[in-house]
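Bug report (template v2)

What were you trying to do?
Predict the complex of my protein with LMY7XDAE.

What happened?
Run completed; filing so the output is reviewed.

Input:
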Amino acid sequence: MTQAQRIDGKAFAAGMTARIAAEVTALRDAAGVEPGLAVVLVGQDPASQVYVGAKHRATVAAGMRSFEHRLPAETSQTVLLDLIGQLNADPNVHGILVQLPLPAHLDASALIAAIDPSKDVDGFHVINAGRLATGQDAMVPCTPLGCLFLLQDHLGDLSGLHAVIVGRSNIVGKPMAQLLLAANCTVTIAHSKSRNLAALCRTADILIAAVGRPEMVRGDWIKPGATVIDVGINRIPDGDGTRLVGDVAFAEAGHAGAITPVPGGVGPMTIACLLQNTLTAFRRKLAAEA
Ligand SMILES: Nc1nc2c(c(=O)[nH]1)N[C@@H](CN(C=O)c1ccc(C(=O)N[C@@H](CCC(=O)O)C(=O)O)cc1)CN2
């Protein structure tokens, strides 16, 4: 049996982070200021706590200022809107994100809409989504941006390739489609209700699995030689404990050309791209003030 090449997102993200840290040092030496990232976490979701902790450590390691706001699950919409208003006005904060998912009583769309689009380092604000869709400078959502970097590093020019994206979320599926269209791919967005999903996936040169269901994409959904990007991070029972699996049945994907592992694939790229977006927001502010 052939063995698909493993796309090492962890190593790629480490290289990006080192480059970003060097740029932050150079900017601090030149301008005497450094980028600041504010992260708002509401509630006790265990996975979100892990991700927010990882964001804090990565931000500090890159020489940026980290402003963490960990709030109780019962925090009201009004209190959060007030906090976002303060962060928008704070000159030391260049990037703001609200960690998702939020407790059910909160309106995530309204909170994201309250973030200054120039500080929206998640790229979830409709202004940034619209800018991306119309080919203008935008803050690009971190996970799809990370997927694009891995694809371009592995394949080079993506022109003319058929990309099938399984998943239509605002966070991954839709912005991923915009990025791949801009890179001259032919793009199909599929989802759990698409007819003949397995056959559709078999037509993909690039298969992006972002559906949030453990190992839903089986080996016989993958065209031999295809490049597979697995965005899923699913914790499943394993013996007495748990383990992480993606949306792709990794063990059945040996005939792919290349595949991202879970963990160690797309996940670390999400955080590296968050640092990149924060640096971009900072640079744009410096340029606007010059
Ligand atoms: N406001 C946001 N909320 C969420 C986002 C986001 O981009 N913005 N994405 C995800 C969670 N996420 C970042 O927030 C994220 C997920 C996974 C990883 C990661 O590095 N995963 C590791 C495994 C970690 C583990 O052991 O659990 C890996 O894949 O190697 C980083 C960030 C939802 N919410």
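What did the reviewer find?
The chain has a mean pLDDT of 97. The chain has two domains: 32-116, 142-267.
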